[in-house]
């Protein structure tokens, strides 16, 4: 069957709980009155949720504008389970590291390309595949034993945090090579329905809250976009088996599963559950309720990124990028945002203050 790995070109995400996901997306929308980009909404949401700090720093860093798809890493971001043939599980994270090397664009170059060739990244990928210069990524995993997850210093299911490679080294397991371009963009790209529920035996979800939310939201969105039979569309079909479920009729019914019954149980050889597809079990204790996670450690990993990963030039470029759009937000939102970044490191906040006209004007009064 198919395995769809949900992920991103950053190892983390903005929010750790799926119920905030729609609100995050809403904060990116255009202003309902002016229909202009609403920087008040963006920075208001960010500054009221410090858990966004880590991802925002990466977004506005040099890696926020990759030089095309070939020069970026890919990350599964979420925490998954790997289960061996003896039903022994471990937690894991998935990484695709580009074999072409990391390469980024400056904001000035990106701005120019936005006007002269907004399809730059698509064209770069297509042209290189067409001429046989196939891009590739080395596939790695990180592994965390269950016992260590119970006592680890950070929540291993928090998608706003990484697993440091010093604690959990990358283990190479394979390669991904893109060696063929689509022959029909609509049929093979627009009708794609990647779904994190598409898992194969041995790979399972975890209590990662954002992953749990995606397990529901992706399939729900595909049903609205493509219809309930989206798995029958050729680009979404598994290669070695036929779609076998109890869905009948409605849009995108390609073969109607040859008149098979649409109820279970039945006496007419309808599909049966596959024993080797059953998920492993795990122990859980505690009260079932909504837990607030706003006060979980939001700044120690961003502080490591600022102090140990970024050099001085990278810090300067990142704060310049942030200031270039933060200055478009209301003054009170600017002040709250600078205060948030100051909790990462005092120098972070100081550099932002020095680059924001609002603070310069206030100091002159």
Automatic annotation (TrEMBL):
Family: Belongs to the catalase family.
Any one Gene Ontology cellular component term annotated for this protein: peroxisome
Domain Catalase core: 1-272
GO term, biological process aspect, one: response to hydrogen peroxide
InterPro entries: Catalase, Catalase_core, Catalase_immune_responsive, Catalase_sf
Organism placement in taxonomy: Eukaryota, Metazoa, Ecdysozoa, Arthropoda, Hexapoda
Protein name: Catalase
Keyword entries, A-Z: Heme, Hydrogen peroxide, Iron, Metal-binding, Oxidoreductase, Peroxidase
Protein species of origin: Cacopsylla melanoneura
Top-rank taxon, per record: Eukaryota
């Amino acid at each position: 069957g198919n395995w769809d790995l949900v992920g991103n070109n950053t190892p983390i995400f903005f929010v750790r709980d799926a119920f905030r996901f729609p609100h995050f997306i809403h904060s990116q929308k255009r202003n309902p009155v002016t229909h202009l980009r609403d920087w008040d909404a963006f920075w208001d949401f960010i500054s009221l949720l410090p858990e966004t700090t880590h991802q925002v720093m990466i977004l506005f860093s040099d890696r926020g504008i990759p030089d095309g798809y070939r020069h970026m890493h890919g990350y599964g971001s979420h925490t998954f389970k790997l289960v061996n043939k003896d039903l022994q599980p471990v937690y894991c994270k998935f990484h695709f590291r580009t074999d072409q090397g990391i390469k980024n664009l400056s904001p000035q170059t990106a701005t120019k390309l936005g006007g002269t060739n907004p399809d730059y990244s698509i064209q770069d990928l297509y042209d290189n595949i067409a001429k046989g210069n196939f891009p590739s990524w080395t596939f790695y995993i990180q592994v965390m034993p269950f016992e260590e997850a119970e006592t680890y210093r950070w929540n291993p299911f928090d998608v706003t945090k990484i697993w440091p490679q010093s604690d959990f080294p990358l283990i190479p397991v394979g390669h991904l090579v893109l060696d063929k371009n689509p022959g029909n963009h609509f049929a093979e790209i627009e009708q794609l329905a990647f779904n994190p529920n598409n898992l194969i035996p041995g790979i399972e979800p975890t209590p990662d809250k954002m992953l749990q939310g995606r397990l529901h939201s992706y399939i729900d969105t595909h049903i609205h976009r493509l219809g309930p039979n989206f798995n029958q569309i050729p680009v979404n079909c598994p290669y070695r088996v036929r779609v076998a479920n109890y869905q009948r009729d409605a849009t995108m019914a390609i073969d109607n599963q040859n008149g098979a019954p649409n109820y279970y149980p039945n006496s007419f050889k309808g599909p049966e559950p596959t024993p080797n597809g059953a998920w492993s079990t795990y122990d859980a204790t505690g009260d079932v309720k909504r837990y607030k996670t706003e006060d979980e450690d939001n700044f120690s990993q961003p502080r490591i990124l600022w102090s140990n990963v970024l050099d001085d030039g990278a810090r300067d470029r990142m704060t310049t990028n942030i200031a270039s759009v933060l200055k478009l937000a209301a003054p009170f939102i600017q002040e709250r945002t600078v205060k948030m970044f100051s909790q990462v490191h005092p120098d972070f906040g100081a550099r932002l203050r020095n680059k924001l006209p609002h603070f310069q004007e206030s100091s002159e009064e």
